[in-house]
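Progress report, Aim 2. The chain analyzed during this reporting quarter is listed below.
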Amino acid sequence: MEEENKKNQILIKVCCVIAAFILWLYIFNIENPMTERKIVVPVTIVNKNVLAQSKLVQVGNEQPNVSLVIKGNASDVYSVRPSDFQLNSDLSAYVMKKGENNIPVTVKKSPSNISIINNQNLWIKIQLDELKEKFVSIKIILRGKPKEGYYALDPVLKTEKAKISGAQDSINAVKYAAAIYDLKYAQNDISTTLSLQPQDVSGNLIKDTSISPSAVKVVIPIGKIKTVPVNIKVRGNSINGSETNLMTAVPDKVDIAGNESVIKNISGIDTEPVDLSKIGSAESTQIKLVVPEGVKLVNSDGVIQLKLNSSTFKVDGESQRQLNLNILVRNLSDNYTAKLSSGSVSIVVSGSDSILNNLNENSIACFVDADSMDEGVHSANVVISLPQGLTLVSQNPQSVNLEISKKTSEGQNGH
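Predicted structure tokens for the chain:
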């Protein structure tokens, strides 16, 4: 009995819901009462070109919107969509200024079966800033790699600069106009048109700007890679034959790339002429490579290390030798002691092989003259006296600091 009562109660509730739904359908479709509703509708800004005439630009390009209060029969009000309306704000009808501007909104189109209650009080706010322009370099960013054995050479642009326009803050942030291309294992020259984007120094896209031109024609030459030796040049002469053991280029080979018709005739890359007289006692020095026109170095900054394997070498048919000498102090008063800021000097001398072969450190006088110097620190020239037949090519250092102090007596030392 109790269970039957529960079933009856459930049945009654279901019937009530059905009855309420039928009543709602009747009211909505038959009675269809008047009702109000809010709907958000986008606003189209027209005649933006007048801003440029006033040297102004909109900050932020998000489309504005307003909230409409609409009224009509329930069936009409709830079936309307934002796309059924057309709302405009005409910038040409008002005087614009830098900063925030309130612009009225005009209803150009709306459904005929509803009314807009607040159509006389519709406004949008737009932020304006001074229009600025500047020219920036165009940068082509290459991604991916060409086919193995090939290398992408520097892109050739029809236009080198692009004009960026926009708000001052945005313009100041733009570093260059960038275009990106994926090489995709290319092995032939590429000719294409790429879209440009204003980017900051970190490669981030800068919005709220316009760019002209919006795209650029570019040719990306794809050259073959070739490995060639490095030729060391000394005052215009290449080191070879018996002198090849005197110097070593590190690396001794480099990869080059270029048009096949160009690189097929290149058997090596020369260094800039090396002035051995300026190397002194250095065991190695940096030297630049001379890269022919139309050729690009692959994975090299164009600088190599030049290691010296001997202290004796020939320049323009004359022998040279590098030596390190100890510096002596001459003519120092017996009442003083002396201390040098540097105790040695590096020199390069030139002469005949017979003289250089018999030359040693004891054959050369190397000293500073302390005559007439009192207590204190003095700058003294380093004097080099060479045997007859030798020429001093270079010397480092030319002078040293000489610190002269009075000798301390034994009696004073005992205290």
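The chain is about 15% helix and 50% strand. Residues 236-244, 410-415 have pLDDT under 50 and may be disordered. These observations will guide the mutagenesis work planned for the next reporting period.
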